[in-house]
Amino acid sequence: MADEMSAKDQWVRQRLLSLNQPVVSFIYDGTPSEHLMPGWMMAPLETKMLSNGQTRYMMKWTDPATGLEVRVVAVDYSDYPAVEWTAYIRNGGARETPILEQVRAINSGFRRGTAQVPGLDPNGGSPIREAVLRTTQGDNFSAGSYEPLEFRLNELAKSFQPAGGRPTNGAWPFFNIDYGREGVILALGWPGQWQAQFMIEKDLVSAVAGQETTHLRLRPGEEIRTPLVALLFWKGEDWIAGQNLWRRWFLAHNIPRPNGRLPELITAGSNDGPHKVATEEMKSIDAYIRQGEGARMGYWWIDSGWYEGSDWWTDWWSAKGIGTWKPDPVRFPRGIREVSDYVHGRGMKLVLWFEPERVYRGSYLWENHPEWLLKWNADEIDSEGEALDLKDNNRLLNLGNPAARQWLTDYISRFITDQGVDIYRQDFNVDPLKAWQINDGPDRQGMTENLYVQGYLAFWDALLQQHPGMLIDSCASGGRRNDLETLRRSVVLYRSDYQAPSLSVLPMSTDVFDGNQGHTYGMSLWVPYSGTGEYCEDAYSARSHLCPSVSVGTHLANPDWASLRRQISDHRSVADLFYGDYYPLTPYSRSEEVWMAWEFTRPTQGDGMVQAFRRENSPDAGIDLKLRGLKSDANYEVTDLDSGRKIRSSGKSLMREGLRVAAAAPRTALIITFREIP
User: Are 583 and 603 in contact (CB under 8 A)?
Assistant: First the structure.
């Protein structure tokens, strides 16, 4: 990584640490910050070596006239070509500030060859004649969620933003600026409404990103922050080299590590009945355990509907328990603890669902703390186009209110301890943007959102500090809140609600299965850990959903234990390989007439796997897949997981000539493993 480290080091020295040309930007009292900050008071650059070998920098500017303070805190990684920063803007004066607007966490550019801005590279660099911007579709409850996207950049700005305030609702705050054999990955950490723009300006690609709307006055002592910005510089054969470098950095420095270890790649089960009832939960657990080790799962999952006012699972939305968070005393007379003790006594752990930011009419918070709640417009429409009547029956708990956040932190933390919860699953099924905006006056636009985002992150930080061995699941109507800040505190157990419905008895369209193949294909470029549900009996359907963590099950009234055992066996056989490098082996496609395939490989361990799918109407019985990331001079044993058939081949042959995979019939899913042998 010497070349990448050099490019990063140059950019840090010549751009990020430039006190006269800050990487952040804004307009203050009508004047762009680039004209103001060079004349403000500048504190000396602070440098601190951290215990993990990273370097932290702090830069600070102060407006002598109004007391506005701009502080940029950056972390430079010593083992990866990565750097990140967050800016904090505080009113240190005695009066309200002039209007602060268009606050951007990054307003900078990158050149081919050196990734430098014009005038800073002593060797001149190369002009940008062509660059491709790569990202994916955010989750939008469709087969197209996480579809890889690419855009040829030019002089017209290409703009991205999510819908409704959830950061991966239809958009994706992760980008790869690809020059061909080198580039820069840019990621945003902002669990709110962000915006990013990219374009070619003269001889560089410019990147401008931040909270979408800021037009506000800061009161004395108030502070806002920008999104986290992370950059990773890469060089390699193609842009996939950058994605794999990103995956390695993500695993090394970003993914949560409960008790110092990578998160377990879990297999979870749940009750298939219409009620959430303690006795039914325990009866279902016993049914699986009686089937022996082949049907054993590591986690038991209780989703929405366990609280007061939700007698049937269809009433999970409109229940006074949303905002009270007490187990229904009739269905759970001894609380959730009765089930969690039962689960723990059988060597399993418990996943429990919450949606603490939404407050329903009649709940404890609705009745006792209306001052903590934010309203929506009466005509608010959710992202699926269905009216939710948010004005009459729902409020948003304002996590930007310190008292509200403290109450929630204390209550949820105590609940986790008292009720024996192992994975705290936090859902978020509303778009918050309108509620934030309604609370802002004309000169406070963006303030409620900014304080809310800070409070949301502080809430999770407190939970993790008090429960250091616990995982948080970042559900938000599926995968609609998975920015970098969120992913540093949580894992993605449900990457999308667009999957085979829980233990469905209805026929599923091929779009669901092929779509979930596409979800794995696109999300694996960015997030090594993701999960979904495999509530299907045939191998093609189940393996289309197979990913790092899965929820499985069978209809206990008419169980198919053989299929369940195969699902669990598939996952156990390959789960750890999902943490390896990732290579798409075929183009992304939603067509039913093609093969879709990809590879996960662990270079250090010398093993990996191929997942390959002959789709419904594919006329080709076989396909040659050129593997990647192997050692040319090594030999590999390749095994078909179904037949057990083994072949031996050199790494050189597998990468040049390819691995021939075949399926006698369409709608076939193959799992092929490989390992290096002497």
Answer: no
